[in-house]
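Marked as duplicate of an earlier ticket. Keeping the data here for the record.
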Amino acid sequence: MSTQTDGERRLPGIGRPPETRREFYVKLLWITMWLAFLGSPVADLLQGGHGPVATVLGWLSLTGFAGCYVGLVLRQTGRPMEPVVVRGCLALLSVFAVALPLTLGATWLVLFVYVSVAYGAVLTLRWTRAAILLTTAALLGTGLLLDTEPQYWLIVPTLLGGFSMIGVRDLVRTTKELREARAQVAQLAANEERLRLARDLHDLLGHSLSLITLKSELAGRMLPDHPGKAADQVADIEKVSRQALVDVREAVTGYRRPRLAAELAGAQAALTAADIAADVPADAPGLPGTQEATLAWTLREAVTNVVRHSAARRCTVAVTRRETLDGPVVELTVEDDGAGPSGTPPGNGLTGLAERLAAVGGTLEAGAAPGRGFRLVARVPAASVGSAA
């Protein structure tokens, strides 16, 4: 999918080789516009002040000079030429710039301006300044060898053209770097969005599917003797699956923000369905939206892990507001009496929770509970990150 703006579609990109014939002609037009300074040599040839042989050689030399200059600058500003070709073109331009004024007159000293621009366009910065100054000195020396008065006014465009081309090259390099940086930022943003979506789907579907599985098993056990209760469980499965579908849609569109109070109620229902004695508070302290959503995700993932992996008989959930040296925090604790840590590295769920909490200035602690079981503690600032700072 193309991301070019209208301006980028109208003109070829700076420092980028032309990709179409139209872009090639546009770039060629921009470069040949600066051949207007060759009007003086052209007028000199048209006036007929030279012999037939000199005139023909003058036209051929001028054509070769202009073609060599345009080709050198055009290719170098897009796709660089081979070093041998570059050195050959620069040598040819330098020879023409010295030989033509000495043979055809001082009007041709303007060629040194193009030589200076060519040096500024293709040489490395280490040699460019010296080459421009030497070109200006050659302009003065060639002018002094002529019988007419040297055209000292050409010193300014010779120096200005060469050093301006250095600035153009810096602009081209900066544009390339910005283009690469923009592509990298877009890639990082896409990766971050994929990571966010993966975390949301893991948290949403892990909890919902675990609850659906538990209720399905419960309905299967109730079906022979208690069909009415089994029907209630099936109805609950339908509600959970519908809510999971809504949550997935909201997560995909980026608007999913769970509420801690709702997740506390959901945790009570999930633990009860898994036949785990639950001690869950009915309400939670007020929090900014981002911190509340982060704790809600943490509670959902923690309860899902208790239901799926712990084989616990009891689970306690606590939400407490505490005062610390860094300011007020809200602490979520989920503790069970199950199997405890497995000794393996943390999975995607705990890793995603740690990333979520770190993003809002919070912390995550997970490990063995005192005595037996597993204990998870998540803390987030009670104020927004900006105001806390």
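See parent ticket for discussion. The chain has 13 helices and five strands.
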